[in-house]
Structures are given as structure tokens and as C-alpha cells.
């Protein structure tokens, strides 16, 4: 009996031990399966779009977009195939606050052997930025042509044809003198639908007068210069001796929120050189006005552009100090008394090879004004893909320092997305003798 009890006890312990081990194994398998299920259900974080490039037309043979971080690390590069927006993505925690963007455009010319390479770079751009690479020139719906004749112009100098969106520069015009009076003949002027035209003529005493016209297709119009109207204000601008200047004025209607230099009604436009006091014109009744002055001297140029109140006086500053330290495009540096907000530099190379192919490479860089310009080497694939791109032989052509204007990010938006409202001022100095 005692033996039987001991047997039962041992047998029970064996069964208990066996069940315990079996249960442990089963439990471990269940836990492992549950852990695997948990691992399988963990979702990867969605990629973050840190840059978008949009283009509505591909006028180049090829176009590539290359993106770096601000330390020069290559983030990504892609060819634009016009298949919709090009997005650049990465995990959120790996995206830097600032990026550098380069567009490489390649073209094969009509002779079949000549090639052009153009690079455009923006540095210090915020992540999540958008580059809309579109053509924003507004001309309207072209429906035909018309002719225009002006008689009895005294001391004729020049003319201008404009709409609220652009200045037209027809090649077909002639002038005829008779008894010290000029007859100006303009033919085959492009006619845009529902567009008001201004014909401006600068005549006696260098004064510009205007005439408004709503022409019809195929018609010819004849007016006497006495039919033309004077502007409300003529503002003389004192120009020092120079090699070339351009002086412009115009106005914007109140319902035009996005205003660019090419938009708005043109009042007057002057080209010339030498010392003088040309009269800038203004007409009352506009919400905002535009004023532009570009003037070139022997070794630098000065530019001032404003959208806002009328510019009734301007003083052209003396040449500031400017010395190049390094002309290297990858590490360009200079010393100046100016305090630029942004800057633009242009390097270029051109040559004709033994086969007679004309090869050009141009690289334009928009960067923060207060920093040394730093850009980075292109990916090896692109260097090998375009063997005639002369990056080693680039020469500095131009440095433009913007002392008034947008900060770098807004400068990028203005250049690429066309988002500008309200008033605007830009002042710049250009140096190109190195």
C-alpha cells in the first residue's frame, strides 16, 4: 500500500512536471507569435515631402533637379520627365531645416553638335518649399494686327506701344521727315483680344505724350501728335555721366494684387547714355506706381526698383568699396562696405572644340548676402552624363549685391512661385570687372 502511494505521488509529479514544461513551451510560442504580430502591425512613418518642383513645359533637351542639405550632403536628384509635380521625400527626422537646390538644364543645338549647359542654384531654402518653374509672361489672346500712324511730331525721339501687361516692340516701323515734322508709321502691331493700347511718343523738349486706343483687327489709324495727351507729372531725374541707363515708370490698377515689373501700365521708358536729366512721367488715379532705374558706369552698375508711391527724387550713390577674395564658384568670397541681404553670382565658360562644336556652361547662384557662397559638386552620374559641361573652367562674370529687397526665402518664392502682393523695393549693385 505504501508502495502504491509512493508510485501515485511520483507519477503525479511526473505528470505535473510534464504538463508544466509543455505549458511553458506553449506559452512561449504564444508570446512569440503575439510579438511577431505586434512587429508586423507596426507601421513605417510616412515619408515627408520636403521639396516640390513643378514645370508646365520642358523647353530643354533634359532637365535635372539636385538637392543638398546645408552641409553639402547630397539628399537626392531626379530628371524632370513632365509627369506631374516632382516631389522629394524623406523621413521627417532626417530632413534639415535648410536645403540647397540646383536645376541643371541641358540643350542640344540645331547644328547637332553644339551643346549648352545652364545651372541655377538657390541656397539656404526652407524645407517644404515649392519651385514653380513656369512662364508668367501675360500677353493675352492674339487675334490679329493693326496699323498706326502719327503725324506732325516735333523733335521726334522715340515711341512705345504697350498694354497693361507688356511692352510691344514691333520691328515694322518707319519715320519720314517733312518741313521739320516727323510722320511715324507703325505696321503689323500684334493685336490682343479685349486689350487697351497706349501709344507713347517722346517729342518736343524730350517730353513723352500718350494716346489710348482700343483697336480692331486689320484696321489702320491716323492721329496728329496734337491729339496726344500730356501726363499729370513730369519728374526730371538727374543722371551723372554714365555708359548706359534705362529709366522706366508705370502704374497698377487697384484690382491687380500680384504686381511684377513687367505688369502694369507703362508710362515712359528711356534708354541712353551720358549725363542728362530725362523726365519720368506719371499719371494720377492709379493705386500704385512703379519706378525703375538701371545705370552703368565703367566698373559697376546701380539699380533701384520700386512698386508703391511715386518716386519723385532719387540720388545715385557713389561707387562702394568691393574687393574679390576668392572667385571660386564653390567657395566665392569678397569684402565690401555694403551689407547685402541677398546676392547673385554668375560664372560661365564657352569654347569651340576641334569638331567645331560650340560648348557653353553657365552657373547662376542666388544665395544669402551676408555669407560666403558655398555650393557643392554635382553627382558623378551627371558629370559623366554631360562630359562637355565645363565645370573646371568656369570664370566669374558678375556679382550682384541686393542691399534692399527680400530675405533669401522670400527672394526664392518671388523668383520661383510668383507670390508678390503690395509694395516692393529692390536696390542692387553689380560688379563685373574682375
Order of strands side by side in the largest beta sheet?
3-2-5-6-26-25-28-29-22-21-18-19
Helix/strand-derived category reads mainly beta
Largest sheet: 12 strands, mixed
Distance between the termini: 117 Å
The average pLDDT value, as a whole number, equals 86
Which percent band covers the strand fraction?
Answer: over 45%
Radius of gyration: 34 Å
Count, helices: 3
Strand tally is 29
The helical percent reads 10-25%
Number of domains: 2
Shape estimate: globular
Segments where pLDDT lies below 50 for 5+ residues?
Answer: 1-22
What does this structure look like?
The radius of gyration is 34 Å and the shape is globular. Helix content is 13%, strand content 47%. The protein has helices spanning 2-41, 380-385, 408-416; strands spanning 48-55, 62-69, 74-79, 86-90, 98-108, 115-126, 129-133, 142-153, 158-162, 167-168, 173-178, 181-192, 197-202, 208-213, 220-224, 229-230, 233-236, 244-252, 265-272, 279-282, 288-296, 301-308, 322-326, 331-336, 342-352, 358-368, 373-374, 395-404, 424-431. The protein has three helices and 29 strands. Strands 3-2-5-6-26-25-28-29-22-21-18-19 form a twelve-stranded mixed sheet, covered by helices on one side. It has 434 residues and is mostly beta strands. The chain has two domains: 58-131 and 320-433, no CATH class; 136-297, no CATH class.
